[in-house]
Specification:
4 copies of one chain form a homotetramer.
Chain A: H1 3-8, H2 19-44, H3 53-75, H4 81-105, H5 110-133
Chain lengths: ~130, ~130, ~130, ~130
């Protein structure tokens, strides 16, 4: 069981959603941030670097947005749809763009295949949470 | 002249907005993140700590969202309204909530007065950029 | 298999250490950052808040230092002992202080028990990597 | 007057150093993180990208280490030399490497010249604080 899941049981939550789902979203966000950070470094090691520039840029943004979203959702400040909804929408859109770009390179670069998978899973997790919070 | 402003002249930009405004937004975001981080610590030093809990929570979220927004806007990945617009909306909403709460304590705590000012300036900067990007 | 572990196989590494160990350190750092962030929020929900202030401060610092250490180690810039060694030493020391403080509260607060465990595991991982890099 | 400086007057500090110096260090760290983040993006726009890879890697690490150092120093948890000293040493070493590499490109790339300057200033600030904390 992830630390995110273990900890969610130990303090009052302000989002009225299932805690297994919430922990799954936090884990997907943290994993995606980690995958994007590693993928940037892997992209920088490729001989055909010029073709990886867009992927690097999108991974850098996606890593930051996922990490911040994970922190905000873990913290459980009083639920404010004006903050949380657009943040999750930005996160889903960033995962979408980054996942699409990584997929272009997936056949040639294993790191992009793994990162695309992390982005897809995280995008779904953001939309699931947005649906549940509605 | 801030580093943000100096650097914006040195590389291609993908947002079609005035560079003085863009640098001003980056500086406002960075300043607000810094003010919120310091305000958390100041709040934790107050004797009437129980009254400061909401302020601490909102400052923690605001600091993260501002820092990520500053990074995304500095990086200038190809402009994607699906990412940048909701991110700036989340940031403006977070600055609004945090600024409102800090203002409640401004008469008694100088740190909250300073932080409220940073939040107000940053909220305006986000809306200005959202308007210019429209 | 964690994304950190999957990705380490896909790009050149500059640290001459076993990749299972390296992935384990990255996962321990990421988990500890997540646990500390959640523990701050849980601490802020406790009735005896005044007793939790030190725990909150140490968790905030530990979360940041662990997240940065995870990013630096994932990126694998050319190994520079002048940067990586003191960073891991700072991280181990931060995990130690935070873990010690969390342990003081572990009997009463499940969140501190979980966080202490994450800090202990992360501290060991930092020392293991420091030993292997020697 | 920077927000860092304004806020330092408003809460108890645990580092026994001059507050103007402390605020100057926080500002130098925040500025350097910002300059490094922007320099990564500028490097990625250069035609001779292959020559900029090391610069990008060093800037990414330097940005993270500076941002975390700024947060830790702003927060003023009880001063723990086991955490703060190696963190500042890692930060100074990172600024040194990043500044050296940026300087190699300063004649051709204005963004690297600006970033080198930010790194030099930040490296000095870290050593000054380490001296004052001794």
């Amino acid at each position: 069981m992830s630390y995110a899941r273990q900890l969610l049981d130990t303090y009052p939550r302000t989002y009225r959603v299932d805690e297994d789902m919430l922990a799954g979203v936090i884990d997907a966000l943290t994993d995606c941030a980690q995958a994007c950070t590693a993928d940037v470094s892997a992209d920088l090691s490729e001989p055909g670097l010029a073709e990886m520039v867009l992927c690097i840029r999108l991974c850098l943004d996606c890593a930051d947005i996922c990490a911040t979203s994970a922190a905000v959702i873990s913290r459980q400040a009083p639920y404010d749809p004006g903050v949380v909804r657009p943040l999750l929408e930005a996160c889903a859109a960033s995962c979408r763009s980054c996942g699409d770009e990584c997929e272009q390179h997936a056949a040639h670069h294993a790191h992009c295949r793994v990162c695309a998978e992390a982005c897809r899973r995280c995008e779904r997790a953001c939309w699931d949470l947005l649906g549940a919070l509605a």
